[in-house]
Amino acid sequence: MTERAWFAPKTYGYGAGLPIAWQGWAVLIGFLAGLAASVVLLDGVARPVAITALLFALVFICWKTTDGGWRWRWPR
Q1: In a domain, 76, yes or no
Q2: Per residue in 36-57, pLDDT tens?
Q3: Is the pTM above the cut of 0.70?
């Protein structure tokens, strides 16, 4: 990765850990704000569709911006 990473890799397992840059924190706060807005403002089928879209966007951004990428980690 040529640019600075936004998320740290998990120590154990697969995926991303906590944000390590302000951009990562902004993504996480934006996700939580969007989630709260979806729960409060939407009803019916729109709520789960919006929550699913937000979740997929968060996972995609974390996957693209994690330091070292996503792979299984099991330190010895």
Answers
A1: no
A2: 999 999 999 999 999 999 999 9
A3: yes
